Amino acid sequence: MSETAIFAGGCFWCMVQPFESQPGIINVVSGYTGGHVANPTYAQVKAHETGHTEAVQITFDPQIISYEQLLAIYWQQTDPTDAMGQFQDRGDNYRPVIYVKDAAQRQAAEASKAALVASGRFQDPIVTTIEAAQPFYAAEPEHQQFYMHNPRRYAAEHQQRQEFIDAHWEEN
User: Fold this and answer.
1) By C-alpha distance, which of 77, 60, 69, 52 is closest to 128?
2) How far apart are CA 77 and CA 162, in angstroms?
3) Dihedral, CA of residue 73, residue 9, residue 6 and residue 33, to nearest 10
4) 14 counts as catalytic
5) Which of 12, 21, 111, 136 has the most Cβ atoms closer than 10 angstroms to its Cβ?
């Protein structure tokens, strides 16, 4: 039986590959969640008209990869100290959010966040929020698996994120 997880961490183009490349991942869909308009478009979300965040919905096999492992991957893809965007993407539609579907996911997310805070890895406060899952709307087809279909643009979009990851997560 599969389960789902929803994470927002800036541009959804950059959030797919790190999860999709893991064993036990069935599907990763780029989309929108957390807003007040049904079936929003990319243009509406980008224009800040709907209240949605760009996010990824991950379908996974918990017998192969756990939700806790997904959380660990998530933290290493975002700047958890930046509440109003991620890297070159600015605005509330790019804010970092862990959307939880039930009490078990909430407990795991809160424990994971507390462990990150306690680690002292970041000097600034961890501002990633943990919120109840809302309806998830898949983005338009051109936004799915963007890294595979547009490798040059993906590399350019991913550069600041990769520099941050290297600076904060590479073990010395």
Assistant:
1) 77
2) 8
3) 180
4) no
5) 12
Helix residue ranges, H only, the chain: 17-20, 42-46, 67-75, 103-119, 146-149, 151-169
Number of neighbouring beta carbons within 10 Å of residue 94 = 23
Among residues 104, 72, 91, 88, the alpha carbon closest in space to that of 7 is found at 72
CA angle 111–116–117, rounded 5-degree value: 95
3-state helix, strand, coil in the chain (%, to 5): 40, 20, 40
Q: Of 13, 12, 83, 90, whose CA–CA distance to 54 is shortest? A: 12
Q: What is the Cα–Cα distance from 146 to 105, expressed in whole angstroms?
A: 28
Query: pLDDT at residue 83 above 80?
Result: yes
Q: Is the pLDDT of residue 24 over 90?
A: yes
Tell me which of 5, 8, 11, 70 is the catalytic residue: 11
- Per residue, the 3-state secondary structure of 125-147, as one string, reads CCCCEEEECCCEEECCHHHCCHH
